[in-house]
Amino acid sequence: MASREIKIGGLGGQGVIMAGMIIGRAASLHDDKYATLIQAFGPEARGAACNAQVLIDDTPILYPYVRSPEFLVTLSQDAFRLFSPELRDGGVLLFDEDMVDPAGLRPGLRKFGVPATRFAESLGRKQVLNLIVVGFFTAITGLISEAAARKAVAETVPPSTLALNTRAFEMGLAHGRQLLSERGGF
Amino acid sequence: MSASVSDKGLLSGRLFIDGDHACAEGAIAAGCRFAAGYPITPSTEIVERLALRFPLVGGTFIQMEDELAASITAIGAAWGGTKSLCVTSGPGFSLMMENLGYAAMTETPIVFVDVQRGGPSTGLPTLPAQADMMQVRWGSHGDFRVIALCPSSPQECFDMTIEAFRLAERYRTPVVLMMDEVVGHMTERVVIPPPEEISQEPRRITRRPPEDFRLFEPRDDLVPDMCPLGKGYNIHVTGLTHDERGYPVLNVASQDSLIRRLKDKLLCNAGDIVRWEARDLEDAEIAVLSYGITSRIAQRAVEMARAEGLCAGSFRLLTAWPFPEEAVRALAGKVKAIVVPELNLGQMVIEAERAAAGRCAVVSVDHAGGAVHSPEVILDAMRAAAGRR
Amino acid sequence: MSSQCENPVKKFLRTDRMPSIWCPGCGIGTSVNCFVRALMDSGMDPSGMAIVSGIGCTGRVAGYLNLDSFHTTHGRALPFATGLKLANPELNVVVYSGDGDLTAIGGNHFIHAARRNMDLLCICVNNLTYGMTGGQVTPTTPTPAIASTTPYGAYEPTFNLPHLAASSGASFVARWTVFHVRQLTRTIEEALGRKGFRFIEIISPCPTLFLRRNRLGDSVDEMRFYRDNSEIRNQCDTRETEIAYRGKIVVGKFVDRTRPTWREAHAARHTEALGARFIQWVGPEDDLRAPDEGMA
User: Which structural domain, as residue segments, surrounds residue A132?
Assistant: First the structure.
């Protein structure tokens, strides 16, 4: 069976790598699947483009890179422009609708938006944007279980921010579920 | 939580960490309590984790002024009585060649880590290669030998770091963990057993009193014992050719006996040192010989080949040096071709060709580095070697 | 020979390695004699001492002293000693090497060991040349001395070693010539009792390659030169200790101060940051398991 391929793109400082870390940790430590996370290393600075690649599989992962993502999460217009052509046919785009205008996405691809930046601002901390995205990802893709995601969140974020980050995760999760029910499922 | 910390600060359980961090935890689990380094991508995370963790487990990390210093400082610490680690990547490894040779000549138990990146020179700091494979074998001057191991996952970075310390102590030799940028920076599940289940190789400390002890007198396994410092043994250690007392003796006879023993102590103990992994080779027409990150891509290619009816199998080097010469020779007698993908323009393939000695075709699938192979490229080479298309 | 007339220094030497490689008139042996006498005078247990050398004529000192001794790679005595000391903090670690080894190929390590105030005694026998390789120019060869690689005379500015050590952070800095055997012995003994990076420069003749090539006579002449041209100036500002060709040699103890050693600074910082969670390395355990008898 081929690995499920996920790519998360955004700007340095948006917590892209941590989002990938939580998803990978949930799958590999709590859902008992195999997961590989590769972060794009480069001359990154805050505000520069960055991405995380996550593979999830029921059997050991051999090829470690995402070649053609089934799920693409974009948190910046740049990331959308750069990575959306890589989406495979039948793939799914998840995006922060406050930051990304998905105009020009190839026909036949599904897309789901979440007002992640606005949600984060409503919680008083822009830094929790990535947790909103993880919650949203959990609801939409079903690739990781909610229970596993919650455990991974608790293991990943600084303990002093756990309550706030959990609320952010839950906002994203709820939004994703509502969207799915409105559209009659995935 | 998936992982727990013992009262001595030792981690165990299930972690989601990258190969660099796993290597650092492997060193701690092996009982290493000294590390010296100099910042260099993509190995820096190893020393960063040790700088963070060592103060909690009673270890010492020092960042030195360069890799010449880092390597000899780690060797000094090994003689001082700790298991000692020295971490770098290609450009730093080039500087360390001087002291890798010194460690081999003085039979110092020490572990080096080279997280390989594209080269030569500064090359590709953040992208992978496997192009230091011959450097580790031949890079220091003179006729020296080391042990080199090749992990292909964060879990193996942990396991093989412990194995590297076992071999270093057991055979009083430098052991080099040949990681690469992908393995170093990829994050996967790493399972760390409870501390009591991890065996720490003890140092070979003599039971003889100082007057009966010689620091370079081999035992039956060709490996000499060590002794504690500061106890009146008054040892002498030198990079010059020396006798069993360690005294310089600069003549043909002592050169011959010392250098041959240093070679033989690894080759005669190869049964305990050399490891490889054979998969699907029983009926194989084509074998893929690979190591490190490339072995995972090669395994994918093998599965693709099997899916289209091409009988292929995989021979994975866990130990690159000493090279599993006899096993590869035997393999060459059974298959039509050995395909050797690696992230360099043809290094271990030379050794495979030498071992195969004409018994089968040996095909290089080279790559200048910066990424891993496409499995399709390896598959194409396998098809061609099998005479398909 | 009866034990009554045996030289007390002898038991500190590996007499089975004699004669040494040093030329007649070389000052290194004199410096070793002073070192051993200082060690005896200090009352320290010699078995708790390790000696580390680099490469060169002075680099061979480690091989002649009957202590735990390490003859390392060229220039690397100080970083080797750094690892040895940090792994085994109970050891008294002495680095004994030459001017070329410590200040040219090992120059970077020298300033950093001083900066860190690594707890090492560093003795530099400065004979103004590379002896073992045939008399090449070093960072201390004064202008315009002849060396084999400056056949028309040296022209590069030199390092003033006491100043280099002091300004890099050494806690103890002194210089004597091998003519000043009593003062040198006393200074080494004093330095053995201090902590941190202690640097002693010993000006010493190389009769074979430096004196002869520059037509300066033999070592006896050079002793007279040291006697007549040395100026004892304890606590002297190290900016004033430069050595010009055939010029005066300022000698004495220049620096003696207390700074935290690397290990003390490391412990203080981590104790402040981590409190009781900080575990300091104290040295290897004594109960290291011996190999099985069956392997013997």
Answer: 4-182
